[in-house]
Each structure stands twice: as C-alpha cells, then as structure tokens.
Amino acid sequence: MTGKREEAARRRVLANIEALGLDECVSELDNQGFTVLKGALTADQVERAKAAVLRRVAAETGRVIDPDLSSAEDFRGMQYQHYLIFEDPVFPEILLQEQTLALMHYLLGESCVLSSMGSHFRGPGGLPLALHADGSSVGMTETSLVANCNYALTPYSAENGALVLVPGSHRKNCYPAVAENWMAGEDTIFDVIAAKLPPQELDKLTWTAPEGAVTMEVAVGDAVIWHGNTWHGGWRRDAPGTRVNLAAYFCRSHIATQERRGDDRYPEVFERYADDPRFAQLMGERVFNGWREEGPDFSGAKRNPLGVFD
C-alpha cells in the first residue's frame, strides 16, 4: 500500500512538471543544485510585493527608503524583514505560484510546508552574505529536506548585491569551509566580522567571491530555486538604492518551521483560500505531528507522508 501511494505521488509530481514545461528546470536542480524560473511573477505582483516590503521597512526604520537612490546613510547593509505572509494579500498569492510549487513538490514532496517568507532587504555597504547551506541546520542528505525560492523584486547584479550560488555543491553534503568563503584580501569574511570595523572602513573593503560561485544576474520577476544543500550567499551592494527580494523557504512536513504555524489571527486569509487545499497544507494546517491530549488524527484531515514525493 505504501509503495502504491508513493508511486502515485511520484507520477503526479512528474506529470505536473511536464505539463508546466519545467523539465529543464528539474534537470538543472538535479545537476547543479539550482535553477532560474523566468517571469515567475507578473509585473503587478512584483510592484505590490515591493511596495509592501518598503512599507514594512518604513514602519520599522521610521524613514521612507527610495529603492533607486537611497544611500548607506539611509539604509546600510542587509536586514531581514520577517514574517511577511500575512502582511499583504499579494504574499499568499505568490505562495501559491503554480510553477514554484511544482518544483518544491519535486524537491520536498506534496506535503511540504512553508517554513518562512521574508525579504533580505539590502542597502549599500556592510558585508556580503557569507556562503552557507540551509540544509546544515536540519541534516544534509541526497534528498532535500529544505529548499528555497528567491524572487527578484529589483534587478540582480554583483553591484546591486545579487545572490551567488555554487553549482554542484548540493552533492557535497557539507558546509563550506572557512577558506571557501568570501575574502577581503588575506582575511576571510569571519576575520572581518571578528574585527568589528567601523561602518565606513567596512564599506571600503574589496571582496573576492568564493571560488566557483555564480552571480545570479536575473531580471525582475524571476525566481531562483535551489536544493537545501546548495551553497549560496550574496554580494555586498555597492550601488545606490536597495535590493529587494522575497524569499519563500520551504521544508518537509516533519521539519520544524522557522516561523511558528497555527497563527489564528488572520481567519480572513484562510477563508479567502478555503477552496484551495494547497494553502492550508503549506501553512501547516494538515501536518500530522504535533497533537496534544486529543491524540493523532487518522481521519485523513492530517497528512503523514510515507515517501519522498507524497
């Protein structure tokens, strides 16, 4: 019975991949550990998502940030804007983007859930994002346990603070060594962090990207999706303005999510998607584990995956 259920899930996932024309993306995920989904978001979705992120930043900093012209004095370096899923109606809408979910189901199975949704908001200056692998916190196996989708809401380039990834690193099943990370002359990024330089001195450093890293020069609306073991980081931004992204991070249903699920403060959002079972699944409403005195739910309302694809 278990084998039949897993095979049925595998067939569904692969049929959906084929129907959506994503076979090349799957090949890239397998071979290099990441892929680019062109035009994943519409222009309208990009503008609404970017505006919502900028509103959040303005509320937290007390100043309006110009995404094209702001300086390091306005917003320096990178700060993660967390828990955006309920911030604006556009975020649940993006969560259910069909092509992204098809690739997440390939990597994590149909029972995967949203671990977190936020924005790595980056102004000029500061540090690059150190090379790392998300899977190191949950266990690194050939089968992905976590996976990331990074939507570009502003253009990506090295000068703009783009994402970098190392092709094939998902097969290493290990974290990058210190010497494999960003370098400023003879100093590693961790030496620089330990030195606690003043911001102005930090901004003057010239950085060398990790060997083999590919800069993701992608267009607005594109999405970069990668296996949880893939090494990735990001350039420091040297251009005026800000790099705005939207990071949707997913995990298998037995992994603890970064954001706490079961948030009942937004019933109108769940009501909006009452006819779309994918939303409840992604928000952890159907996760089998986590019962209290009521005991496990064997009615089928909760899902207990038995294989890689279900």
Main traits of this protein?
12 strands; globular; Jelly Rolls; four-stranded antiparallel beta sheet; 29% helix; 310 residues; six-stranded antiparallel beta sheet; alpha+beta
What does this molecule look like?
The chain is α+β, with helices and mostly antiparallel strands and about 300 residues long. It has one domain (about 1-255, about 265-280): q2cbj1_9rhob like domain (Jelly Rolls). Helix content is about 30%, strand content about 15%. The chain is built from 9 helices and 12 strands. A 6-stranded antiparallel beta sheet has the order 1-10-5-12-3-2. A hairpin with a 2-residue loop joins β7 (about 185) and β8 (about 185-190). The mean pLDDT is about 95.
CATH class descriptor? Mainly Beta
Please, how many domains? 1
Q: Give the averaged pLDDT, no decimals.
A: 96
What best-fitting shape do the alpha-carbon axes yield? globular
Largest sheet: 6 strands, antiparallel
Number of strands: 12
CATH superfamily: q2cbj1_9rhob like domain
Q: What proportion of the residues is helical, as a percent range?
A: 25-40%
Tell me the fraction of residues in β-strands, as a range: 15-25%
The succession of helices and strands, N to C, reads HHEHEHHEEEEEEHHEEEEHH
How many helix segments?
A: 9
Structural class: alpha+beta
Radius of gyration: 20 Å
